[in-house]
Design goal:
Elements (H helix, E strand, L loop, with lengths): L2 H14 L12 H8 L3 H13 L3 E4 L3 E4 L4 H4 L1 H8 L6 H20 L4 H12 L7 H18 L3 H11 L3 H10 L3 H17 L3 H20 L16
Antiparallel strand pairs: 1-2
Helix pairs in contact: 1-3, 2-3, 6-8, 6-9, 6-12, 7-8, 7-11, 8-9, 8-10, 11-12
Length: 236
């Protein structure tokens, strides 16, 4: 094991065993390196690496702290990696979304409160077939995020968000090029809300699968071969 990797593992162990808790300040570099029997240079590199993946927060002139370690924060590095994927990976991302999001939707069906259902209906009332495609995609992202968050699993929410945020361009271009995409999307959303309101987890899950598969079907026509055109720039 490389010395820097060993330093990373040792710091991770301190966090895992509770020696360092979220929000705690790490001992000064010199003291920590001596305590762990590692060089200051390897310790410095380990801190840099853990800062990149949002485990540590280096505050210049103040010290180094353990972050909140919340799932959304720790999953940011995965989101960054997904940002680097090419168009050919879009179908794989949608396949992952089709696995994760319907499961979260089914979980949400057993947990949604009447107020949360009303909030979903309110979101639906704010868009219609005359809405811009950009407005529809914004609605789509917020609508699905609200459902996934209602599942009550922060790790699942973070994973779905990381995957979903990297499918925005495909969803936007589909809305611009596919006939009746806006009205079809809204109709599918309404059906999902009614299933959720009824607490029907299996139906809500099935509708979510069909909803995501509709965009996948459109993507399949591109065969992953040609790049998606850049959508028009938003004026706002």
């Amino acid at each position: 094991m490389a010395v820097t990797d060993e330093a990373i593992v040792r710091i991770q162990e301190m966090i895992r065993n509770g020696e360092l808790a979220p929000g705690d300040r790490l001992p000064p570099e010199k003291i920590l390196s001596e305590r762990l029997g590692l060089s200051r240079s390897s310790m410095r590199e380990a801190v840099k690496a853990l800062e990149v993946i949002r485990v540590l927060d280096v505050r210049r002139g103040d010290g180094t702290y353990v972050t909140s370690l919340e799932p959304r924060l720790l999953l940011e590095s995965m989101s960054f990696a997904l940002d680097l994927q090419s168009n050919s990976a879009l179908l794989e991302l949608f396949a992952v979304r089709r696995i994760l999001e319907p499961a979260a939707t089914a979980m949400a069906a057993t947990r949604l409160t009447p107020d949360e259902v009303d909030d979903l209906r309110r979101r639906l009332s704010e868009v219609d077939s005359n809405s811009s495609v950009e407005g529809l995609v914004d609605h789509d992202l917020e609508f699905h995020a609200a459902i996934v968050n209602a599942a009550g699993n922060s790790y699942l929410s973070g994973l779905v968000e990381a995957v979903s945020s990297n499918t925005v361009r495909a969803r936007l271009w589909r809305g611009l090029t596919q006939e009746n995409a806006v009205s079809r999307t809204l109709a599918e959303h309404r059906a999902m809300v009614e299933a959720l309101a009824a607490g029907d987890a299996k139906l809500a899950e099935a509708l979510s699968i069909a909803h995501i598969a509709g965009v996948e079907e459109w993507l399949h026509r591109w065969n992953g071969e040609q790049p998606l055109p850049q959508p028009p720039q938003r004026l706002d």
